[in-house]
């Protein structure tokens, strides 16, 4: 804080968190410590770089006024983040009831019998604010921290290939089982059909020969047995 006879100025250093291609603002507070109206004016060594609102004004007795200083967006950072820009705040006792539009440059010219108070302000560049670091939660005592893995990140191509091979083998097994089941059912049906024909043949022979068994029937039974053995062996 700068303490003068007319105004208290806070702060006396204009601090800008410097970032490229971004407008940055900071504020000044002017406090009138007298019973008079005090007119002020803010000047800078680099007017194209900074915008001051208001750059002139009147602080009423025992009151305050805020001044906003905005630095225009910069395309490159200065060497070593050092800034040589400066500001000058001038203040003078004004007539009661004066308005900001009535302030003229002549009011701040040094003349006999006129007291012009001056306060010099420095400009400082600060590094931009850093984002807060993440806070790691400590695991409870006796409980080991859980580690989660994404299976898609671990041997992704190999896992996919294994799944495809497993699906192919399952499809082949189901097709083979279905084929064997169909063949077994067909063999059973054929066997039942042959058995029925044998029974019909046996009945016909028994009726014709009075209960004796002919050689033809024996041969037929033997052939049926061989056929059934062959089918069951293949299944």
UniProtKB/TrEMBL annotation:
Topology in the lipid bilayer: Single-pass type IV membrane protein
A molecular function (GO) term: protein-membrane adaptor activity
Annotated keywords: Membrane, Transmembrane, Transmembrane helix
Cellular localization per UniProt: Membrane
Biological process, per Gene Ontology: endoplasmic reticulum membrane organization; endoplasmic reticulum-plasma membrane tethering
InterPro entries cross-referenced by the UniProt entry: Ig-like_fold, MSP_dom, PapD-like_sf, VAP
Signal peptide coordinates: none
Family in the record: Belongs to the VAMP-associated protein (VAP) (TC 9.B.17) family.
Name of protein: Major sperm protein (MSP)
Lineage: Eukaryota, Viridiplantae, Streptophyta, Embryophyta, Tracheophyta
């Amino acid at each position: 804080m700068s303490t003068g006879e007319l105004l208290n100025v806070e702060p006396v250093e204009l601090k800008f968190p410097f970032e490229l291609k971004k407008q940055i603002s900071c504020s000044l507070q002017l406090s009138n410590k007298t019973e008079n109206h005090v007119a002020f004016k803010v000047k800078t060594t680099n007017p194209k770089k900074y915008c001051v609102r208001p750059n002139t004004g009147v602080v009423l007795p025992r009151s305050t006024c805020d001044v906003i200083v905005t630095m225009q967006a910069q395309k490159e950072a200065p060497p070593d983040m050092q800034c040589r820009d400066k500001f000058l705040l001038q203040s003078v006792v004004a007539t009661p009831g004066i308005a900001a539009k009535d302030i003229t440059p002549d009011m701040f010219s040094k003349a006999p019998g006129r007291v012009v108070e001056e306060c010099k302000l420095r400009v400082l560049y600060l590094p931009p604010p850093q984002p807060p670091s993440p806070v790691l939660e400590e695991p409870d005592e006796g409980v080991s921290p859980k580690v989660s893995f994404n299976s898609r990140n671990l041997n992704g191509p190999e896992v996919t290939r294994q799944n495809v091979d497993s699906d192919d083998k399952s499809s082949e097994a189901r097709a083979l089982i279905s084929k064997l089941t169909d063949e077994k059912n067909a063999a059973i049906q054929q066997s039942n059909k042959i058995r029925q024909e044998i029974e019909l043949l046996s009945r016909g022979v028994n009726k014709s020969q009075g209960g004796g068994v002919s050689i033809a029937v024996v041969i037929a039974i033997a052939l049926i047995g061989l056929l059934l053995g062959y089918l069951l062996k293949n299944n």
